[in-house]
Here is the input.
Amino acid sequence: MEGVEKTAKTIEEAVSLALAELGIDREDAEIEVLEEPSRGLFGILGSKPARVRVQVKDTPSRRTRDLLGKLFGAMDLTVELNIEEKGNNLRVDIEGKDVGILIGRRGETLDALQYLVNLYVNKNQLSRCRVILDVEGYRRRREETLQKLAQKLADKAKQRGRNVVLEPMTSHERRIIHTALQGRDDIYTFSEGEEPYRKIVISPRK
Here is the structure.
């Protein structure tokens, strides 16, 4: 973990100096007091300053931010990362100029990047954290599109009385389709085929 040592008249002053150098807030830091300040003879002679060591907490959020910062730096992309942590889920919204290249065809580049981030963040960790990457709301818009498509094709399957086969999708997108239609009693869904060509079939109930 990245860390620095600082000395000052008081512990708080030393901690503030360290936080400023690391560019982090107090809640993102692990603080160790190495030496308490002491007053010498007559309050002057032999006095000792406070000395602290401050380290950056090794959290999923920090590991995600560090990795993406390095990747986007190498790509010469200036981005803003908005990270929201809820339990074992970490959602990262990426915003900035020219970030559309991170999405790729039907989100394939974004899915690959998300896979790499999850591998890195969870390496040698006792508890697993699920990291979800999004670029300027792409996943939300894509989810809404898939939900509407699911209902439209389900109606088509019911009206025609035969199966409707969707194009191959990722496991995440297939889950969206299944979830969108699970409440209907006039059709049912299942997946067939092998990855990466696995697809959903919408079938009318007889």
About this structure: The longest helix spans residues 138-160. Residues 140-204 form a domain with the Ribosomal Protein S8; Chain: A, domain 1 fold (CATH 3.30.1370.50). The mean pLDDT is 89.
